[in-house]
Amino acid sequence: MTAPAVQNNPRDTYRWSSRAFVLPGLLIVAVMLYLPFVWTSYLSFTEYDGLGDPELVGLDKYQAMFTDAGFLVSLRNTLLWVLGTLVFPVGIGLLVAVLADGIKGSFWYRLPFLLPYAISGVAVGVIWTFILQTGGALDEALTFLNVPGDRPRWLLDAPLNTFVMIIASTWQAAGVNALLFGIGLQSIPKEPIEAARMDGASGWTLFRTMTWPMLAPLTTVVVGLSIVGSLKQFDIIWAMTQGGPGTSSETLALTMYKETFVNNDYGLGAAVAVFLTVVTVAASIMYLRRQLSDKKEI
Amino acid sequence: MKRNSVMGIGATASLALILAACSGSDGGDSGGGDNEDVTLGFFTDKAAWESSFDAMNEVSGEHGMTLDFTGYSDQTAFDSFVKQSFRTDSVPDLFTWHTGGELADLVDEGLVAETTDLWAEAEENGLVPDGLIDNYTYDGKQYCVPLNVAYWPVYYNIELFEQYDLDVPETWDELMQVADVLVENGEVPFHQMNMIFEFVWFQAMLAGNSPEVYEGLQTGDASYTDPEVVEVMEQWKQMIDDGYFIDPGVTTDPQALLANGDVAMAYFGTFFTGQLTDVGAEAGEDYGVFTMPNMNPEVENRQMILETSPLCVGAGSENEEAALEYSAWWMTNEAQNTWSADRGDVSFNPNVDVADPTLSALVDEVNSEESGFTIQQRYLEATPVPIYSVASEIFGEFVTNAPDPMPGLERLQAEAEDYWAGQE
Q1: What's the pLDDT tens digit per position in B54-108?
Q2: What's phi and psi for B245, nearest 5 deg?
């Protein structure tokens, strides 16, 4: 008895060859993205100073993180950044886009708002430090204008320092949001807007009942990106205050960096990183789910 | 068949990518193996000093040793790089580091080569001052050699002192009187910062108020709530409240502030001389230097804070022997004369003539037996990293708002107790 000859199935061969081509991409994702996260998660359960071998300490680092008063300040500041980013860069971006929409030469109106986006966060921080430092450009301007009263210590007093850094971030980020909203406004079909106008809708009513709902897909993207961006805000703060004085303007991203690389407590830094990742992913999923379910209801 | 080949190419490409990523040379371009002419891989966080290391290469090249310079301008990134390099086969031949706990960590892990013989020879030949060896000694053995040193005096603006007819203060009371005159005339007596150097007035005042307590804090034998420390913090608070210091929100470079007379005095390491030179200020004409008086007049010896950076040899590096040879050469009169002349800075080597007359006078004064100076380590290096991390937060806040010092000191002491308990 002889075994039946095995016939190569062309579909199987194709499946295997396609897998082989996917393999490099999968490996890159695994090595560059999954592996660091798994390693970071592991480090968060260890005592490790960057030398020698990590030593398992269970949940000690998480306990240390949640009982540290500085961590609560970081959490508060991060929340301020999320709220501030939604109100200012997103709000002003939307306002600029709406005001510029449909007017002649709107590109030139939006362009100056977009220019700061070409500058790195660190450069933005340096520029705004020059403006906001004690006796800086803003104080000089207020004195020149004979504005009475003591000058606030813009970068020294908390939470004022966080608010002014959100303003600096707004200066940089509002333009790109305006650009995105502008694209969204241009993609809205003209017919329903014209129909609403013929029915007598205009101004705020037209925007609230027609433009805003039709802009929803793009708003979802802009708000989603802003939430994630504000949760991991680092460069402007590092350039302007390094999280200080003390820890008064630290955010979670700064705490993670300082604990890991300045204080050499890799375990605690990793615990903050894991917490920040969980918060960012959870916030993104919750927001997107809500948006998508709202869309289904519509 | 054709599809099988394509599949094979895909899989091979994947493997090639991985192998390419995992393999590769160790990156070292040192020419080890040739004793006549060796290039040592050298890594430092002092990127701005590249030209000085080039100048050193011209001299060391005559001995068959040169450095292949890699400079980092961000200290945190550099520290991480060095630590990670010890997990690879590319251990740096030579690198700069920090004394204190940071060096102890490397020694504990056996990552730096021992230099006990080099120090013995250097001390025998009078190439290093007394006491400097303590910064490099762990369990009775030495590791690394000094890259440089910086003494911490007070720099002052000569024009402002002349304008208000002020003499260089020799006692703490005189220093306070000078500050009072300056404040009365609307000037700002002292510079201080709420980040990076937020600890320096604490170190100056405590070392001069109670050297024993200053040293005790470094070993856990003294407490941050001891009366001598509290006294210092209260005095410091009073000085801040009385307007003795510039607002820490001013982020203009301190050398510009001193040179322009925006502050009358700045307490800094002697590296500050180079920064003043960069803004065109001249020693003896635009600025002068005096040693910080003791806060407590009953302290017998005058106190001088000394900061030193180590030059270390990676244990097991490709050119370890040659790097040790270079380290020995680094301490010689020839090397240090070149270094001091190029940097315009002081040298740890007592045989070196410092070109800058102000610095030269300072070094002579500190090293003369009659002056009776006690050398103290800088607070940053002398304090274990976990305690220093909390201290920098607390002093940063203190410099900014001058709150009641006790809660901060109690928090600092709690951190210190935790740390020292873990060392037992």
Answers
A1: 999 999 999 999 999 999 988 889 999 999 999 888 899 999 999 998 999 999 9
A2: -115, 150
User: Cβ neighbours of residue B48 under 8 Å, at least 6 residues apart?
Assistant: B71, B73
CB B373 within 8 A of CB B389: no
Residue A23 belongs to a domain? no
Q: Name every chain B residue with its beta carbon within 8 A of the beta carbon of A164.
A: none
Sign of CA dihedral B347, B349, B352, B358: positive
Chain-chain contact of B3 with A14 (C-beta, under 8 angstroms): yes
Separation between Cα atoms, residue B375 and residue A133, nearest integer Å: 36
The predicted model scores a pTM of 0.83
Q: Judge whether residue B21 has pLDDT over 90.
A: no
DSSP string, A162-231: HHHHHHHHHHHHHHHHHHHHHHHHHHS-HHHHHHHHHTT--HHHHIIIIIHHHTHHHHHHHHHHHHHHHH
| pLDDT value for A19 | 84
In whole angstroms, give the CA distance from residue B46 to residue A86.
Answer: 41
Q: Which of B10, B84, B400 sits opposite A156 (nearest CB)?
A: B400
Neighbours of B133 (CB within 10 A): 16
Q: What tens digit of pLDDT does each residue of A98-144 get?
A: 998 878 888 888 888 889 999 999 999 999 999 999 889 999 999 99
B143 three-state secondary structure = strand
Question: A249 at the B interface (CB within 8 A)?
Answer: no
Q: How far apart are CA B412 and CA B422, in angstroms?
A: 16
- The CA-atom distances, in angstroms, between B285 and each of B156, B234, B256 are 11, 35, 15
B84: which chain A residues are within 8 Å (Cβ-Cβ)? Answer: 50
What is the H or E stretch that residue B39 is in?
A: strand B38-44
Class of domain B38-149+307-355: alpha beta
The residue whose two tokens read 């404040």 is B183
- Is A10 in the B-facing interface, judged by CB distances under 8 Å? yes
Is residue A21 in a domain? no
A144 reaches B (C-beta below 8 A) = no
Average pLDDT over residues B206-210: 98
pLDDT at B35: 52
Tokens of A192: 């329903």
The confidence score (pLDDT) of residue B33 equals: 42
Mean pLDDT of A222-229: 91
CA A88 remoteness from chain centre: 13
| Fold of the B154-305+377-423 domain | D-Maltodextrin-Binding Protein; domain 2 (3.40.190)
Side chain identity, residue B82: V
| CA-based torsion, B69, B75, B81, B86: positive or negative | positive
- Using a pLDDT cut of 90, give the percent of chain A over it: 63
ipTM of the complex: 0.79
Q: How many CB pairs under 8 A join A and B?
A: 101
Domain count, chain A: 1
H helical segments located in B185-226: 200-209, 211-219
Quote the CA–CA distance of B161 and B178 in Å, as a whole number. 9
Asked, for residue A284, whether it belongs to a domain, the answer is yes
Best residue in A35, A161, A264 to probe B by mutation, most B CBs within 10 Å?
Answer: A264
Q: Which residue range is the domain that position A135 belongs to?
A: 60-297
